Amino acid sequence: MNLIESLEWRYATKRMNGEQIPEEKMNNILDAVQLAPSSYGLTPYTVIVVQDPTVKEKLSPQCYNQPQIKESSALLIFAPWKNINDGHVDTYMQEIATTRGIPVEALVDLANSIKGKIKSSTPEELHVWASKQAYIALGFGLAAAAVEAIDSTPMEGFNPAGVNEALGLEAKGLSAVCMLALGYRDAPQDYLANAKKVRRDKEKLFITF
Ligand SMILES: Cc1cc2nc3c(=O)[nH]c(=O)nc-3n(C[C@H](O)[C@H](O)[C@H](O)COP(=O)(O)O)c2cc1C
Fold first, then answer.
1. Which of 78, 91, 101, 195 could form a disulfide linkage to 134, CB 3.0–4.6 angstroms apart?
2. Ligand 1 binding pocket includes 157 (Cβ within 6 Å)
3. How many domains, the chain?
4. What is the mean pLDDT of residues 170-174?
5. What are the C-alpha distances in Å from 99 to residues 42, 56, 94, 104?
6. Could you tell me how far CA 68 lies from the centroid of its own chain?
């Protein structure tokens, strides 16, 4: 399947059959999430990978008992950093310097630009900003899953405070905003498995100049 065929094949799977995703496919999906772009490249979020059934069991009531939680092979939970600060920027500058073999001093303008953005934003604005980056990673994971012929469900139907509590995310400086359940569709149980895709017509979706 080409990319468009894969995107037509995928749907937000409501029921999964519990089958495990092969490690190679899982790694490819995680690679795509890692390759997602972010503002300045800062990547101000962490992705929690849940495969342990006991952890899924704990999360289920916080996700309104949506069946995909327990029936998935893996759950990716996208959690923006709560307290984005200059220390994060300095660590990132060091990573660029090491990866590209350049002195960290050469990155001072970039560092100041990101630090300025942080300084001029409220904690709420920073949370929204970091969440946007996390949603881009969600999108990359969704598309990669489709390419790997792995079913998935993007999810924000959960109680963030409950999920944070269940995983101890607050203590790690994180706050969950969205999830990606990954697995295999249980077509006979899933009323959406054979439903036609509904999308706004291109004439309405796009405005061209
Ligand atoms: C950010 C986001 C959150 C969503 N949350 C849920 C969810 O909690 N549970 C669910 O079953 N589907 C959820 N969906 C799936 C959407 O309902 C679905 O993507 C949409 O109806 C389009 O259908 P399709 O993805 O099957 O093409 C979510 C989708 C997105 C993008």
1. 78
2. yes
3. 1
4. 97
5. 14, 36, 8, 11
6. 16
Cα dihedral 156→159→163→166 (10° resolution): -160
- The whole-number average pLDDT for the span 163-174 is 98
Tokens coding 191: 């009323």
How much is the pLDDT for 108? 98
Is the CB of residue 92 less than 8 Å from the CB of residue 188?
no
Domain limits at 185?
A: 3-205
User: What does the block give as tokens for 66?
Assistant: 């949506």
Residue 66 in contact with ligand 1 by CB distance below 6 A:
yes
Calpha distance 202→197 (Å, rounded): 14
Whichever domain contains 145, its CATH number is: 3.40.109.10
Calculate how far, in angstroms, residue 152's C-alpha sits from the geometric centre of ligand 1.
Answer: 10
